[in-house]
Amino acid sequence: MKKIKILNFFLIALCLFLFYVLYLFSFGYQTVTEQINSTTVTLFGDTPDYTDLNYDGPYIFYHDDVAEIITIEKSKPKQDYGKINRKFIGLQDLYSTKFKSHIIDADGNSENYVTFQLTENYLIPKSVNVLLPNQKIFCISDLEGNFEIFRSFLLNNKIIDKDNKWIFGNNFLVINGDTFDRGYNVLPILWLLYELEREGGNIIFVIGNHEQLNLTGNKKYLSRKYKALELIINKGYINYYNENTELGKWLATKKSVYKIGTFLFLHGGISPKVFNKKLSLDSLNNIITKNIRLPKELRKDTIVSNLLLDNYEGVLWYRGYFKNQDNYNRSTQADIDSICNYFGVEKIIVGHTIVDEIKTYYNGKIINIDVTRNDDIGKNRPSALLIENNKFYAIDELGRNFLIK
């Protein structure tokens, strides 16, 4: 009888072991080890999306009086995947903590990082009607996670120093939409801009269509890295930038259209259909800010907000300055003249629609700065704009400038 009991116990144990092995096969060979207040998640298996998940973060989520900090870092150079680390910091210690955001290279390794601290007092940029004498505007668009190119622009145009500190004085740095998607270094760009603003830099961060996509959890253009991240953090991508996160709160202070002196900055453009609503800049921005995270059925000012946010003639999506579309024709010179007169500007600066070079359109009233870049620093066409003493220069990542006539 005793032998039978031992045999039964052995068979039960064997069945449980086989069930566990089948479980591991079913879920992609993932193992998770957790500790309270400091959690490490180790990834195994052959899921191809994870191969790009080496470094990322930090993502900062708020839970009452505690902040949850999630980062991904390789602990060993030859380790196949990064490890997810979770830490919990009380709010009383949060603002004295120094954070790092790792920058990954083409091989998925990281030798550099951005350092930053948090602030409770965001500098909320507003439109400026008059530029001071000799005040400059440096504008770049459609970075899409390409940190190294971005930093080269900032360094070689004397906007930051080698330690990533702001040295651009009272001049303006305009990010004209689409920092998100496609590339692998979105977080380092966001945290660098956050830190430069905390230091007092004049940062104008324009909300573009890819910001809208990410704020609403749309993953259509995400790199594989961020899709893998969602699977293992298990928070739902729509929550990464919600208003219970640090970056979500910071992004909520940003607008879609800014006026600086006699120049209008936005990502897509003001279409004739939007212009016919005769909205002020404040009204236009307020409608977008209040509704950008909401599904259509919960929005206020439904007709106008849907036009601004979900229509290809909205300010985040419009391409009609440069091409005809299926549902609208290209803007006319009369359209552009009316828009400039209404907002009291001489020029409108946009991105979004890729062009071969930075130049003016519509008798000098439109400038498009969305020129395709590759990762080879110094081998790109100029893809940023410098406005200085009412002159306009196309700028490359080495700091070379070319007068736009």
Major β-sheet annotation = 6 strands, mixed
Shape designation:
globular
Tell me the name of the CATH homologous superfamily of the domain at 137-403. Answer: Metallo-dependent phosphatases
Mean pLDDT, all residues: 86
The termini sit apart by 99 Å
* CATH arch. level architecture of the domain at 137-403: 4-Layer Sandwich
What is the topology?
Elements: H1 2-26, E1 38-41, E2 56-63, E3 66-73, E4 83-90, H2 91-94, E5 99-103, E6 112-116, E7 137-140, H3 147-156, E8 172-175, H4 186-198, E9 202-205, H5 209-215, H6 224-233, H7 246-251, E10 257-260, E11 263-266, H8 272-275, H9 281-291, H10 302-310, H11 333-343, E12 347-350, E13 359-361, E14 366-368, E15 384-388, E16 391-395, E17 401-403
Parallel strand pairs: 7-8, 8-9, 11-12, 12-14
Antiparallel strand pairs: 1-4, 2-3, 3-4, 5-6, 7-15, 10-11, 13-14, 15-16, 16-17
Helix pairs in contact: 9-10
Structure overview:
- With 405 residues, this protein is of the alpha+beta class.
- The chain has helices at residues 2-26, 91-94, 147-156, 186-198, 209-215, 224-233, 246-251, 272-275, 281-291, 302-310, 333-343; strands at 38-41, 56-63, 66-73, 83-90, 99-103, 112-116, 137-140, 172-175, 202-205, 257-260, 263-266, 347-350, 359-361, 366-368, 384-388, 391-395, 401-403.
- The protein has a domain at 137-403: Purple Acid Phosphatase, chain A, domain 2 (4-Layer Sandwich).
- It is built from eleven helices and 17 strands.
- It has a six-stranded mixed β-sheet, covered by helices on one side.
- A hairpin with a 2-residue loop joins β15 and β16.
- It is globular, with a radius of gyration of 24 Å.
- The N and C termini lie far apart (99 Å).
- Residues 19-48 have low confidence and may be disordered.
